[in-house]
Amino acid sequence: MTNSNDMPLAAKPINRAAHRRNDEAWLETAIQQDNALILMLRAGEPFVASDGGLYWFGPEALRISPGSPRLFLGEDKSGAPVFALDLPAKFDVASSLIAGAGEFLDFRQASARMPDMDANCASTARSLFLWHQSHRYCAKCGGQNGIVEAGWKAQCAACGAEHFPRTDPVAIMLAVRGERALIGRQKFWPAGFMSCLAGFCEPGETIEQAASREMMEEAGIQCDPARAEYVACQPWPFPSSLMMGFILPADSEEIVIDSKELESARWVTREEMRDILNGTHGELFCPPPTAIAHHIMKVWAFRND
């Protein structure tokens, strides 16, 4: 059975130890301990070793880019404190203390190579740092925000307003009718790449209603939200979404696409879906196992085996 706790980027999270976030003295001591674990990002990209895995630093990381924003992620199973540093976008690896140790790599590429805990930590750090970068100013008075509570909150220096990281709920769904399922593609995707449809949840609606509404808006397929089958959810740091996956029994089959959202959509049989997932389809391919779309498609394609 598919479980959200086993989903890539969500699997094997560390103890967030939220009670430590306001203890400045403890945090300052912890990040300088010999057992401290520190990962680094630059513009949302994690620093990875030459073998492609996440590069974990110790307290020496503080000398690489002094003054870079810090984030306390929590504690691992041994109790070691886990931190992340957000390096400047113009940070040059070649002229730094870490020249030759690795590289900053696109998050999608890097996360596919990481162990579960590493991927979860890097994903969490990416979401939080990108949120801070886009929320430098107070939405209440326009004053400068400062990073507080070890990175888990922003506070305005002028009016004191508190701002908390946002998570955007997104419905991602596979409409099915009999032995066929609906997949679609956006025009900027690689040729042959197709996936589940998805869209943001709006104020005043449930996530099941959002799934059904988006299916109708993008592909013209009528679905009853009361019949939606929940599959699993996945944190998705692009920049900070929570993808909630559904299988939607369809009440209609004529496709009428919204060309602003999709380039095309089509029904595929269960056998075709298996070929797509296995990489043996002659024309189409789908998201990799790091994405929840892959798992939604797989649940439906192989559920009768």
Give me some keywords for this one.
Nucleoside Triphosphate Pyrophosphohydrolase, 21% helix, globular, 26% strand, alpha+beta, 6 helices, single chain
Write the layout of secondary structure elements.
Elements lengths: L23 H7 L6 E6 L2 E5 L20 E6 L5 E7 L14 E3 L2 H5 L4 H19 L10 E4 L4 E4 L5 E2 L4 E10 L2 E6 L11 E4 L6 H13 L9 E8 L4 E9 L14 E6 H9 L13 H11 L3
Parallel strand pairs: 1-4, 9-13
Antiparallel strand pairs: 1-2, 2-5, 3-4, 6-7, 7-8, 9-10, 9-11, 10-14, 12-13
Helix pairs in contact: 5-6
- Named at the architecture level, the CATH assignment of the largest domain is Alpha-Beta Complex
Q: How would you characterize the largest beta sheet? A: 6 strands, mixed
Shape summary: globular
Query: Average pLDDT across residues?
Result: 96
Name the structural class: alpha+beta
Poorly predicted regions are none
- CATH fold name of the largest domain, please? Nucleoside Triphosphate Pyrophosphohydrolase
Specify Rg, calculated over alpha carbons.
22 Å
| Record field, number of beta strands | 14
Distance between the termini: 13 Å
Name of the CATH superfamily of the largest domain: Nucleoside Triphosphate Pyrophosphohydrolase
Highest-level CATH class of the largest domain: Alpha Beta
Give the strand content.
25-35%
